[in-house]
Amino acid sequence: MKRFVMVWGLVVAGLGSNVALTQGLPPPEPIEKVGDNLYKIFGGGGNTTVFVRENGVVLIDTKMPGNGEAILAEVRKVTDKPVTLIINTHAHPDHLGSNAFFVDADPAVDVAMHVNAVPEEGSPFYNAGTVPTITYDSMISLGKGADTLVLHNFGPAHTTGDTYVIIPAEKALVMGDVMAWEMGPLFDTPSGGSVRAMAESLDELVAVASAAGVDKVIEGHGKVIDWDGFLGYVAYIHKIADVAERAVAEGLNYVEAYERYFADDSSFEAYLGEELKKGLEYGGTPKSRTLNNLYVAIKEVKGEPVPLIMGAPPPPEE
């Protein structure tokens, strides 16, 4: 556990600027139906996925602190059932920030997360809502029949504590920030995030999700995408990892690698745009995130330390 304690401390320190930035996020939007008993609430931080089960409501992520009342108000538009379970896809404050609202209101609410996402006692985000009652290592199944949720972790990706949630009855996959905003991911490297490890993790996820019949994927921020869109994202992550290897072999910096291998590749057009996305202005442009990802991946290939980069990477060295 000592390593996880250290990682959480680095997350808090590294994401201090992220907390300030996300305070400018748009507020939670009206709840959106995305399946028979499945809903999504955008805004106020990460998406909150709402799964209505026979005897209660599951919330997957709870946005930034201060959004609990707004989340509950949206849930009440579709059901009067109590919130009985919160699942956190990872330990960043824009995904577990309002846990305490629900746990303080009902201490019987369970909180589930990966063992690597458990916060350190004494950290700014340690409270009754972020102390899990359910943890797991690689996989855990919660509920029965149509109420079943299956939680998976396939190793480092966005962090070391990412949870993918498969809801078989809804043919749905909830990604957390391993996929967000319809553009390249942010790699929280101090928390063990890794480009090359993510590529391997996503291959395992594709196999498991395909076997479960998944046909819709809910991003950590943003929209619900179809299976083909998800496979396109997996291909993008693999290309980032592959181009980084080529760049190091050919002596290219990240900008040169982008120009040679990405700039004219129309198959990845969605990841090359230069327009800020509405409602997601703090996330950078798709192009800037791709440049960021290449910078991180090249550092990884070289075996060099990789800092947490929230925005544009530093200019290439002369």
In a nutshell, what does this entry contain?
The chain has 318 residues and is of the alpha/beta class.
Q: Keyphrases for this structure?
A:
seven-stranded mixed sheet, 15% strand, 318 residues, alpha/beta, six-stranded mixed sheet, globular, 33% helix
Please tell me about this protein's structure:
It is a single chain. By secondary structure, this protein is α/β, with parallel strands linked by helices. The protein is 33% helix and 15% strand. The protein contains nine helices and 13 strands. The chain has a seven-stranded mixed β-sheet with strand order 1-2-3-4-5-6-7, covered by helices on one side. Strands 8-9-10-11-12-13 form a six-stranded mixed β-sheet. Strand 10 (164-167) and strand 11 form a beta hairpin. The protein is globular. The N and C termini lie far apart (41 Å). Residues 1-22 have low confidence and may be disordered.
